[in-house]
Amino acid sequence: MTSPQVISVVGYQDAGKTQVVEALVRCMCASGLAVAVLKHDGHADAIAMPDWEKRGSDTARVAQAGARWTMVASRSGWLLHDWATAPSGVDDWLRTMLKTIDAEGAQVDVVIVEGAKMSHLPKIAVVAERSELRRLLDAGVADLVAVCWTREVLAEADVEIPQFHLSAIEELYTYLSKRNC
């Protein structure tokens, strides 16, 4: 498998990250690209046993009993859950995802990571308000390649990062394509 392009979509809760990811996925798929999405659930980092599956489900119960791996599967897909408590980060998650895709004999052209603000990945900052962009910049979020506004167009003149509105997602996609992100 050739190495896919990887881009991260970051922002604060309710800024519209998932909307931006969905719109980018649509554009990329319409262009014939195979796209994978990895979502970092930062809220789950703070609890011992994330509740990604229904509370009291069979897989949650066997995980509580000590199973390290659980899988929910049907004819339409599967979700493999590693309940390990060892620390890991976006690099480990990407490596695991890409190994699994490769083992399936599939190809992926682009991986969009939703989250991972402090990673080394190139990032799109998704913001609904000016204060959110300021907070991201002040927090030291680096490697920003673009800003995507999800509410009003409030472009910051003093920020030298290309800025787009969600309503013009095709322009953002074209920009990313030219950058090979």
TrEMBL record:
The record's Gene3D superfamilies line, in alphabetical order, gives: P-loop containing nucleotide triphosphate hydrolases (3.40.50.300)
Which SUPFAM superfamilies does the protein's record reference? P-loop containing nucleoside triphosphate hydrolases
Q: For the Molybdopterin-guanine dinucleotide biosynthesis protein B (MobB) domain, which residue ranges apply? A: 6-147
InterPro entries associated with the record: MGD_biosynthesis_adapter, MobB_dom, P-loop_NTPase
Per its record, how is this protein called by name? Molybdopterin-guanine dinucleotide biosynthesis protein B
